[in-house]
TrEMBL record:
The keyword Transport applies. This is V-type proton ATPase subunit G. GO terms for molecular function: ATP hydrolysis activity; proton-transporting ATPase activity, rotational mechanism. V-ATPase is a heteromultimeric enzyme made up of two complexes: the ATP-hydrolytic V1 complex and the proton translocation V0 complex. Residues 35-44 have a biased composition (Basic and acidic residues). Belongs to the V-ATPase G subunit family.
Amino acid sequence: MASQTQGIQQLLAAEKRAAEKVSEARKRKAKRLKQAKEEAQDEVEKYRQERERQFKEFEAKHMGTREGVAAKIDAETRVKIEEMNKMVQNQKEAVIADILNLVYDIKPELHINYRIQ
């Protein structure tokens, strides 16, 4: 009977050690997964920063700075406004004369729906 009790105690102790090893292995696995996730996030962040830097270089090379683009648009707008103002000044007298001619040239006519009784 004593040998059975001793055998049971050994089995229980072995089972306890096995459970501890499994628990420790799970902890190590969770730790490795967490570390791998952090490394992947760091790598993604580095890649994103590199692509952002490349994009800014490309943008500066091909488009210029934002201030430069805004200044160019303002200059083009001013030129177009000046051209429009010149066209208005050139055509102003002729347009006014045409409008006045239409207003002053009154031709009284009977409306086509008017019936003479």
